[in-house]
Amino acid sequence: MNNDVSAALHRSQLIDLTTTGRRSKLPRRIEIFLHDEDGVLFITGMPRRDRTRDWIHNITADPNVIVHLKKGIEADVPATARVITDPHEARPLIEAAARRWRRDDVDDMIAHSPLIVLTAATAPAA
């Protein structure tokens, strides 16, 4: 991955994320916010008690994803996603997202928000 893409990847921004459908095996693309906190790339969302997001189910079945950068630099970056369920591991990341979003319900977010950490591959997809 070149330096420009790497730098762009580590700017918190709106991206598209492609997962593989757990049943259909087809690509599923969503628009979502990518966070960077001290070099850790992660994605979270608003708390929801009633269900787990489809993209979390998809990542649980297949952790290989594509991060589509679309602001400034356009690039498709393969990555591996890891679903975070440990509240102690989640807390610093959720706190960072809560600060950005000016939320004060960190405990609710830890209990009910989806959270993944991304590890980018070394080269962009073609």
Automatic annotation (TrEMBL):
Pfam families hit by this protein: F420H2_quin_red
InterPro entries, per the entry: F420H2_quin_Rdtase (IPR004378), Split_barrel_FMN-bd (IPR012349)
NCBIfam families found in the cross-reference section: hi_GC_TIGR00026
UniProt name for this protein: Nitroreductase family deazaflavin-dependent oxidoreductase
The species this protein was found in: Microbacterium deminutum
